[in-house]
Amino acid sequence: MARTPEQQLVDVAAATFESLAFLVQVAEDESGEGDLAPVCAATLNFSGPFRGVLKLTVCERVITELAGNMLAAEDEPVSDEQRTDALKELLNVICGHLLPILAGSKSVFHVDAPKLVDAYDIPEVLGGMPLWARTDLLLDAGRAELALYIEENARLSVGSVA
Question: Rounded to whole angstroms, how far apart are CA atoms 43 and 40?
């Protein structure tokens, strides 16, 4: 059975969070209590066989544990710069794993550097691109949201632009 765009986004994101930051996808009742409101977001623009933007938004606990785990900073505090750098690196890796699934392994893309954006804004850089897939990922540290915008009429290896 073909995977939906959202399932593919969840699969790639969950695997990347786990392998890169040791944050595991959990059921809703296992995420622990606390504020799950988004506090930090980054976008990444890409172009090649088609253009798009991937946006990752995370809550406070996720970005803190993400940076701490990626830097192996066991009980040491991490700086705001380290936290945002970790978020941008994670987004870059997610995008790097996702694009070959969408366009085929031989496709070549130009991927811009990730940029911090307001967690509540839809990035202006979308240029009218429609939302292709969006998902909430509940991790043991809290919530992360991924949204993938792809230009209309893109030819994808899987699924279709909604």
Answer: 11
Strands (E), 5-79: 38-47, 52-59
- Let me know if residue 25 belongs to a domain: yes
Tokens representing 8 are 């593919």
d(CA 79, CA 45): 26
Residue-wise pLDDT for 87-104, tens only, equals: 999 999 999 999 999 888
- pTM here? 0.86
CATH number, domain containing residue 94: 3.40.1550.10
Angle, to 10 degrees, between the axis of helix 80-103 and the axis of helix 60-70? 90
| Number of compact structural domains in the chain | 1
Residue with tokens 């969006």: 134
- Please, which residues have CB within 8 angstroms of residue 123's CB and are 6 or more apart in sequence? 43, 53, 55, 117
DSSP code of 159? S
| The two structure tokens encoding residue 34 | 């606390």
Q: Is 133 helix (H, G, I), strand (E, B) or coil?
A: strand
Residues near 115 by beta carbon (within 8 Å), at least 6 away in sequence? 42, 43, 44, 88
